[in-house]
């Protein structure tokens, strides 16, 4: 039976104990600037993985990893003493990849900013491929076309106005269209003419 909330609470407590023990009790000169970032405990509470980061170069990281391996027994005994669990979990130290991932994300964001700036620079000197207003017509064709548009608009307004006689060009007052909400519940309207 696994108790995951208990495993999470124990992981937080292990992280605190390991961090304070590294800071206050261990005097190994190989330990660099170590930060305990996280701890995870298996649901059966038998194994704990402690994640850490080291400020420095690769030699500092290697020296700190060796120091943590040699101090594993001391750290495990402190965890057992301060937690009071029946079985003290084994400790495994794993370098945390969060700083490397964060640096990679920062580099990708900077690359995206540079690409955006290039696009902004190209766009500043660009113009449209066609005419500035492709819908503008010359004056003589525009007057004729404007009259045609006005006639079509008047016809469509009459058709939308409830089906009055003469409102729909080329048809009767309501016989060849679907009934609308203003037609009295879907019944066909009266037919004009003889």
Largest sheet at a glance?
A: 3 strands, mixed
- Please count the beta strands (DSSP E, at least 2 residues each): 3
Q: What is the CATH C-level name of the domain at 4-96?
A: Alpha Beta
Strand content: 5-15%
Output the helix-strand order: HEEHHEHH
Quickly describe the structure.
The chain is of the alpha+beta class.
How would you characterize this protein structure?
With 194 residues, this protein is an alpha+beta fold. It has a domain at 4-96: GMP Synthetase, Chain A, domain 3. Helix content is 49%, strand content 12%. The chain has a three-stranded mixed β-sheet with strand order 1-2-3. β1 (33-41) and β2 form a beta hairpin. α1 crosses α3.
Which helices and strands appear, and what pairs or packs with what?
Elements (H helix, E strand, L loop, with lengths): L3 H21 L8 E9 L5 E9 L2 H13 L1 H12 L6 E6 L2 H27 L14 H22 L34
Parallel strand pairs: 2-3
Antiparallel strand pairs: 1-2
Helix pairs in contact: 1-3
């Amino acid at each position: 039976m696994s108790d995951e909330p208990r495993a999470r609470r124990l992981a937080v407590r292990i992280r605190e104990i390991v961090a304070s023990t590294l800071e206050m009790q261990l005097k190994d000169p190989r330990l660099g600037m170590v930060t305990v970032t996280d701890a995870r405990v298996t649901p059966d509470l038998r194994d704990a993985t402690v994640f850490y980061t080291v400020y420095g170069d690769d030699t500092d990281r290697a020296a700190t990893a060796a120091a943590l391996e040699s101090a594993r027994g001391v750290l495990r005994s402190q965890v057992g003493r301060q937690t009071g669990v029946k079985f003290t979990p084994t400790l495994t130290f794993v370098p945390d990849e969060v700083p490397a991932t964060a640096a990679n994300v920062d580099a990708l964001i900077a690359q995206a900013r540079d690409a955006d700036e290039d696009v902004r620079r190209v766009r500043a000197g660009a113009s449209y491929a066609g005419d500035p207003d492709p819908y503008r017509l010359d004056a003589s064709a525009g007057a004729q076309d404007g009259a045609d548009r006005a006639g079509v608009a008047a016809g469509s307004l009459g058709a939308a106005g409830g089906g009055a006689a003469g409102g729909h060009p080329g048809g009767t007052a309501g016989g060849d269209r679907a009934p609308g909400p203003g037609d009295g519940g879907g019944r066909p309207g009266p037919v004009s003419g003889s």
